[in-house]
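Archive transcription. Copying these from loose printouts into the bound notebook so they stop getting lost. Printout 1 of 2:
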Amino acid sequence: MRPHVRQKFVVGNWKMHTTTVEAQQLARGVVDGLAAADHVTVILCPPFPYLALVGDSAFTGEVSPTMLRDLGCEYVILGHSERRHKLGESEQFINRKVVCALAAGLDVILCVGETLEQRESKQTEAVLDRQLSTGIAGVSGDDLSHLSIAYEPVWAIGNDEHHATPKQAHDAHLLIRRKLSEICGETWAHKMTIQYGGSVEPKNAAAFLGQPGIDGVLIGGASLKADEFLAITKAAASEIRAEMQLA
């Protein structure tokens, strides 16, 4: 792949869903259907009790990074909106988790995003600025290659009344990359993966993935059905092939 074309990421966040049998079947269904996913990094994030089980098929919560590495995990999602707003994790606490996870050898997906109230009061830029500045404070240059950002507009997650448009997602990604440039420098800001997470489904995946600067998607509900997850993965593969042809 040409150096200035960023690889696409498709991340399935299962949260507190699936049983033992369902987790194994879902993971196997995804793995069996991934043949066409060239140049797309596919990541599954199952519930903690099923990590080892899913790891056997495919290679969140209260657990140490050392334990995750021992189970063969490579990625961890931190700063998820549910952890921020339901469990009260502060920016400083999330930062400590980011630094700790990176030190343990895990790749970190750091979630950022504003609530509906913050967006309507035109605080989006300030919120993203604060979450990024604090969230990656103290991260060394060597560790930046193991860090990616997921923009999650809290107001658009599982909300039938409010949906983010591809343009709104694109604009937020521009803000994030501009802020990363201020924090990390333009070179790292250009290299860093920024994903979108906000009710992504097969029917809208291409519209989001086709936006300049959106490097992947963090998927919730649609990741619980192998066929829907694979359809999104194929959309990502199609977009990266188109970008490579234009590069």
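Printout 2 of 2:
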Amino acid sequence: MVSRALTLLTRVGHYVWSGWGSIASLCLVLAAWDALSTQLDPLILPSPGTSLASLAQHLSGQEAWQHIAATLRRAVSGFGLSVLAGTVLGLLAGAFVTASMVSRPIVTLLMGMPAIAWLVLALLWFGSGDGTPIFTVFVACMPIVFVGAMQGTRTLEGQWRELAQTLGLSAWQRWTDVYGPHVISYALPAWVTAFGMSWKVVVMAELLSTPDGIGAALAVSRSHMDTASSMAWTLALVGSLLLLEYAVLEPFKRHLESWRQAGTAEHRA
């Protein structure tokens, strides 16, 4: 029990230490922001200290947490739906040539159509509420996930499939030792890209369609010409994104990569 706890603490320590580069880059951004703010009017660019003080003031009340929770719920819901649908459809399109040919123009249309156009349509279809931002995030992220899963399936070499059949591997062993590690290497970067996209899209959708959320709070601060408050909500958005990425997505990514490397090593052995 003690050894497991020590192992867990060691892994957490290594993970935290590995993020020093990200912390250093954030410090550089803050330093550049502070230097630039001294040359500009506070109405144009307030200092980091002023923005952080505004953020602390917002977070001292319950309303700010409700805005953040609403944005988090919509972004994660749209992203989760896009991962589920995009991965399943991408695997089917990669496995069957006919499905790939049929889906190609549809994916081109979805990737080429700007998110703002989908937002306008979503407003007409779903009105003001959760449906509009969730749908907009879904339709903006799904093609990215779809392409990653499709490419991972299509690039799976036939010799690996033949080898799996020759060795008589079960369906589960084929996925864990052969197919899965290869597909994950393509799908994982697509998931990370779609995750970042979901936050940008959800705030844009909230700005125009919902009475709550970080996007709605940004709209209010813009109408009041309160630049410090706008920067504070931007910091809340970026902070939430970084927290989710490094506390949830990055450990999940490392777990999948370790599984992929273990599966590949076992297969080679």
